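Hi support team,

I'm opening this ticket because the web form for multi-chain structure prediction keeps timing out on my end. I have pasted the exact lines I submitted so you can reproduce it. The total is 621 residues across two entries, so I didn't expect it to be a heavy job. Is there a limit I'm missing, or should I split the entries? Thanks in advance, R.K.
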Amino acid sequence: MTKFLLRRCSQAVVVLLLVSVIVFGLLHLLPGGPARAILGTHATPSNIAAFNKQNGLDSPVPVQYWHWLTGVLSGNLGFSYVQNQSVASLLADRLPKTAFLAAISVVLALLIAVPVGFFQAVRRNRVGDYAITTVTLVLYSTPAFWIAILLIDVLAVRLHAVPAEAPQGSFSALFNDPQAMVLPVLTITVVTVAAFSRYTRSSVLDELAQDYVRMARSHGASHRIILFGHVLRNAAGPVVTLLGLYLPFIVSGTLITEFVFNYPGIGLLAFNAATSQDYPVMLGVVVVVGAATVIGSLLADVGHALLDPRVRVSAGIA
Amino acid sequence: MSIENVTAVRGPEDSALEAEAEAAAGGVWVRTFLRNRLAVVGLAVAIALLLFSFVGPLFYHTDQVHTRLSMETLSPGTGRPLGTDSVGYDELGRLMVGGQTMLEVAFGAALVAVVLGVLWGATAGYFGGLLDGFMMRVVDALLAIPALLLLLFLATVFRPSVPMLILVVGITAWLVPARLIRAEALSLRSREYVLAAKTMGVRAPTIILRHIVTNSIGTILVNATFQVADAILVVSAISFLGLGVAPPATNWGAMLSDGLNFTYSGYWWLTYPPGIAIVLTVLAFNVVGDGLRDAFGLDTRRG
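Hello R.K., no limit was hit. The queue was backed up. Here is the completed structure from your submission:
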């Protein structure tokens, strides 16, 4: 286990470093570099030169990278000249809101998708399985924003059941107006259930085909013990790893959802930053989400290894 | 946006590879595919949508360049089966024109993603060792960045046009094929014919192209099909956010974005047709991909 942990952690560190290089590269990929991104398109060459000198941007690129990296590690994610606030304070305000939205939706999705996928795998190729497979395949092929539009059309416009705009204001507003949370949560849940249940189904099917299942059956173990004692636990492993890897997709999904419902999270922050060319904010979001994903998938792999000793032994996680 | 893609890192078993090689050699996969009714329906739908977008305008003439504000948001009626949009364009004609850019970008991006991913993955898997470790960590790092954020960034830096969108979407989508092909290459590199070629002094690039890539053709074809489906979702998402092609060009995502403003007015013809078109196309390519995967006898997961 120690060897596995060491190996996996060192991989995560390398990936984190690469993420930082990519983000730093993106900032420098901009025509005119960071100075142009911050001063705007109308900056004169002498303005840019002065800015570069003032901010140490005339030093060699590796030195700049080192300064930027140590800054990021100490919580300095740059400054948004568009919003006149530090990127870190913007993120501190928005991140909890997105985390809250994503957490509720993913927990709901797991509560629905795991039993559904499990049921489908156990009753494979029967009417119930086909019906659910069809529904999840259609949902899986449906973009999040169209699901959002359909939900608005049915629940907000036709039935007047819930408002179509998310709660605004501080974090506590999210709790004061639960009705307004319904549509954003529902949108992400539906998209996530489609993917998770398909994944759970194939994960359980993989396990059902294993030798140990046949072995247990031939030893006279009951169907229930095989399913809930062995298969469920082993099939849970890949689902846990999936959770770790799923983070970037949650962020992409929440970005769309936040855009449609005007939900004040990091997705909307990133979108507004993109349209107002506020690059420090965009890249700040990328850094935070990228780091969270790498750490998330590290934790998921460790969780998988704790659940399933076979992973620890082979340690062949790609 | 498809998560199953990313997690499908397990390489197919050797038996599956052999079955695939046999199947590919005998063209058996074509027959197996054609026996799968759902997949054939999917293929038919995909072809029908292509014809609708590219041949349709030859029979159904509409002006998709000049706006006519006197004709805005008219409900469906005679001469306009799906009504008109917020600047007076005929919605059915718009659906055809929008489908063209949509499918062009989707096919182009899938091609870019697959070529880039196959070359990257085959190289990493063939050489193995430190190079492989480094190349795959690069893939991990890029996977940790949400594709949509990267797309937003690139779409604001580069002016979006059809070729630009193809490149941008392709560049964010090559990671999954890279992982899949790397897994194949890892198992193919120790085959006798590869070792024989190596002993005879065949150069690495030749071995990768002639032996590794050609023997992974099943995986490549299946993934390419899923890539088209994913690219459609991605392109429509960027366009929905208003960062797609500039008017009067359009695509289904941009049309939906326009329709979103009119949901409270009850103009269903602005949101349902483009939405259904997206779902139908993505579904068709996903079903074809599933059928191809079964025909090649690959792993049950995506790819």
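A quick check on our side: Strands of chain A lie at 79-80, 85-86. Let us know if the file doesn't open in your viewer.
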